[in-house]
Amino acid sequence: MTVAAATASPFRAAPGVLVLNTDNTALHTVTLKHAIGMLVREVAVVEQAHEDRRIGPYPWPLVLRLIRYVKTTFLYARSPVWSKRGVLRRDKHTCAYCGAKATTVDHLVPQSRGGRNTWLNTVAACQACNARKGNRTPAEAEMLLAWRPRVPGWREFAVAR
């Protein structure tokens, strides 16, 4: 056995641990380290484990089942919930006005005028363009958008991770 193998953490070598909801539907997989943390916090119980392996007082988990039910209706929503991070990801961190690296979100109809935090009212923008536009609409500021904002789908967020 090599020195690297002898000192390697078992947390890195193990495949993921399947997490089930209380109704036994599969939610996702987590790392072994995360799974042990869930056992310590008592938010899950071991449903299936390696027969002859343990990690401290816990059996080596292969499948965990949550103690409390987790609602998953968000997975079936038509589109992701709006967020600044989501707008930046949708627009690929590119300013909708000048094409530079975007670090902020701009409201097409400013919030002070009743503009809302929605996918169709926000675009990614750089600090300079956001400051230049100020409390005006793009037409009033005589700034053209490089693209029209749109509502993203779940698939594009799953691929972008």
Structure, described:
It is a single chain. The protein has 161 residues and is an alpha+beta fold. It has two domains: 15-66, no CATH class; 81-148, DNA Binding (I), subunit A. It is 24% helix and 24% strand. The strands form two sheets. It has a four-stranded mixed beta sheet. The protein has a two-stranded antiparallel ribbon with strand order 5-6. The radius of gyration is 23 Å and the shape is elongated.
In brief, what are we looking at here?
This protein has helices at residues 3-7, 10-13, 32-40, 84-90, 127-133, 154-160; strands spanning 17-20, 26-30, 44-55, 58-66, 104-107, 122-125.
Q: Write down the oligomeric state.
A: single chain
Radius of gyration (CA) equals 23 Å
Low-confidence stretches: 1-8
Percent of residues in beta strands: 15-25%
Note the total helix count. Answer: 6
Count of the separate structural domains: 2
- Kindly report the average pLDDT value: 87
Topology as H/E string?
HHEEHEEHEEHH
> What's the total number of strands?
6
Q: Can you tell me the CATH class of the largest domain?
A: Mainly Alpha
Largest sheet, strands/sense/barrel: 4 strands, mixed
Percent of residues in helices? 10-25%
How far apart lie the N and C ends? 36 Å
Order of the strands making up the biggest sheet: 2-1-4-3
The general outline is elongated
Which CATH architecture of the largest domain would you pick?
Answer: Orthogonal Bundle
Looking at the structure, the CATH topology of the largest domain is DNA Binding (I), subunit A
